[in-house]
Write a structure and sequence with these properties.
heterodimer; A: 114 residues; mainly beta; five-stranded antiparallel sheet; 0% helix; B: 113 residues; four-stranded antiparallel sheet; 11 strands
């Protein structure tokens, strides 16, 4: 079936190091992808997005890479800080004739070790 | 601040009680959504409203009803709460086609005892 999933449910990274969170998707028709960050007790917050006509997009300390050949999405966080500790979700959107909705993965918990 | 506002933030219900979760957005979005989030399960769509006047079932609609009161407000009602409905509930909104993603509220933590 179609799914958006993550390779690792948890990830621990030393403060100051870079972290990479991965996501696999199964529908080659998906054309829009988003990474969300969810801190404890809060709602998911938009971090960065990428459309299928791109393979890389950079924000402030974050980079999203899209590999359409293997249907893989990754979020790179540079120089991690304690405030980066959170659950990170990927989401995909598939064209659906005006009925588009996002499909979310289950999330990866990122813990920053001081 | 612009965004999605949910009330209440916390609620404890007894089995069989009813309640309505409120959601309002001030971004002039057409579409609104209700999700529940359980540990290890990610976000599951309960109901959504693509535009004012329309509502549709999502992945887990049983035990819930919704009302799109106007363009700003989308409420979720539990008619007879069950312990299985203990969860964190999130409301979200987006453009009709979510080409810029969803904006989420801060959530309602509901416990049914």
């Amino acid at each position: 079936g179609e799914s958006v999933g993550l390779h690792l449910p948890t990830l621990s990274v030393q403060e100051g190091d870079n972290s990479i969170i991965n996501c696999a998707y199964s529908n080659s028709a998906s054309d829009y992808f988003i990474w969300y960050k969810q801190e404890s007790g809060k709602g998911p917050q938009f971090i960065i997005d990428i459309r299928s006509n791109m393979d890389k997009r950079q924000g402030q300390r974050v980079t999203v890479l899209l590999n359409k050949t293997v249907k893989h999405l990754s979020l790179q966080i540079a120089a991690t800080q304690p405030g980066d500790s959170a659950v990170y979700f990927c989401a995909e959107m598939r064209p659906n004739f005006g009925n588009e909705k996002l499909t979310f993965g289950t999330g990866t918990r990122l813990t920053i070790i001081p | 601040n612009a965004g999605v506002t949910q009330t209440p933030k916390f609620q404890v219900l007894k089995t069989g009680q009813s309640m309505t979760l409120q959601c309002a957005q001030d971004m002039n979005h057409n579409s609104m959504y209700w999700y529940r989030q359980d540990p290890g399960m990610g976000l599951r769509l309960i109901y959504y409203s693509a535009s004012e006047g329309t509502t549709d079932k999502g992945e887990v609609p049983n035990g819930y009803n919704v009302s799109r009161l106007n363009k700003r407000e989308f409420s979720l009602r539990l008619e007879s709460a069950a312990p299985s409905q203990t969860s964190v509930y999130f409301c979200a909104s987006s453009e009709w086609i979510p080409n810029y993603g969803y904006t989420f509220g801060s959530g309602t933590r509901l416990t049914v005892v």
